[in-house]
Structure formats: C-alpha cells, structure tokens
Amino acid sequence: MEGTSGIIAKILIALVAMEHLYILWLEMFAWETAGKRTFKSLPGHLFKETKGLAANQGLYNGFLAAGLTWSLLINDVLWQRNISLFFLGCVLVAGIFGALTADKRIFVKQGLPALVAMIMVLLS
User: Fold this and answer.
1) 2, 18, 10: which is closest to 84 by C-alpha?
2) What's the pTM?
3) Strand segments (E) across the chain
4) In the predicted model, what is the mean pLDDT of residues 85-96?
5) Residue 32 has what DSSP assignment?
6) Do the Cβ atoms of 64 and 91 come closer than 8 Å?
7) Sequence-distant (≥ 6) Cβ neighbours of residue 55 within 8 angstroms
8) Is-contact 55 28, C-beta < 8 A?
C-alpha cells in the first residue's frame, strides 16, 4: 500500500483494529459494567448469565484486531494487501451477519468501516 490512498487505508485498518480491541475489552472484561450501559435493550440479569458467551465473542474480536494489526506490520506489499483484505472481509461478513440476525446498526458500526477500508486498500 503506497501513496496517499495507502496511508488512508492503513489509518482505516488501524481504526477498525482499535474498534475490535475495544469490543474485546467490553465483552471480555467489562461485560457486567460497561456492557450493561452499551446494550441497554438487554435485561440486566442476562449480563451475569451470559458473561462466558460474551467473553468468547470478545476473544474472536481480538483475533480480528490481531490480524488487522499484523497486516500493518508486513513489509511485502502484496502479502500486506492480501492479509488486510482477508481480515477486513471477515469483519465485513460479521457486520452483515450481525445486521441480519441481531441489530441493523451493527453493519453501520462494524461492517461499513471495514468496507470503506477494503475499498481504500483496493484503490492503493
């Protein structure tokens, strides 16, 4: 990824990675506190009961963040592009699935940023 579009692509990848690190923290370590404030539509008693499930989801978000971060550290341009597109694609698919099965806002919050980053990677 070179030039201005490459720099923008890397910034967007980093932002998507940071978002998923935040989700990791929320779901793995703050589910019963910040999770309650974030997911107000869920009954309060569910947070204790679903703590393990949320932590599992958080771990997967951590893997996405790790893969996106890894893509930023690769020197080979083609390899960097392929790895970033793979992990952004995973985020995009998760965002689409979340929108279809849970809440349409998931696509806007997670899928759309990944899609924009993918477009910038492809343009760089």
Assistant:
1) 10
2) 0.91
3) none
4) 97
5) T
6) yes
7) 27, 28, 31
8) yes
